[in-house]
Amino acid sequence: MHIVVCGGIVPDPLQTLEPVATAAGPGLKNELLLPAILDPWAGCALHEAAHLAKQCEGSRVWLVSLGPKAKLQQVMMSLAQKAPFELVALDGPAHGFTDAHETAALLAEAIVSIQGLDRGRLLLFGGWESASRGQGVTLQMVGERLGIADQFQGVDRITLRDDGSFEVMERVEGGRHLVSWCTGPPALLGWATGERAEPRNDPQMGMKNMRTIMPALQKATPVSLAAEGLSYHDVRLPLQQRQTRIVKDMPPAEIALEIFDWIAND
Question: How many domains in the chain?
């Protein structure tokens, strides 16, 4: 199988993010100084892709990522020790204020240009959600541009069969799962948390990966996301408010009604 994982980089969630207005539009304060990580949902997709590739001899895994080249290098130094993959890098903004439609177009072009990729054997992986530009739609639009009709979102498990088909378990409402069968690639899977724990660091794998990652970063294609027609009227942090009252023996229905009124009047 040929597995392509779409994954962007995001600021470390332990950092305080403050939106600011820049000459190019909204951005993050001190964005270039913020430590970055691979988007958590995309990380689950990459771990699942590496596990799946182990089960099928001859499989290959690519990671397609759009972000500032310097930040991508920082993230890849640690990510390379987690799973074997080949990097396809796009040098562009990753602050989350870009248009998902433009991002999907650039990612689809990068996937089409991968040398040796057999689109008849393609499994397109990514995060079901995203901590940046995704909004739950980027991966779907990439799949549409590549002509992939079989799309599964909120995936927690994929089980291969001997005939090349596979079973997919997707999350649905009410804490349940929907089990579907797909005859084979091409297919798109937007991963939830999956079932794989984060792999331990493997320095030998990291050194092997870096032999291809560094040249890929040097050849990263510069891209721009103009976001023409997209504007932000106001960008700010969510308001923080705390008003504490201690009340005894208040019925749950009245508590719920008071919370509802507070939200409605905010």
Answer: 1
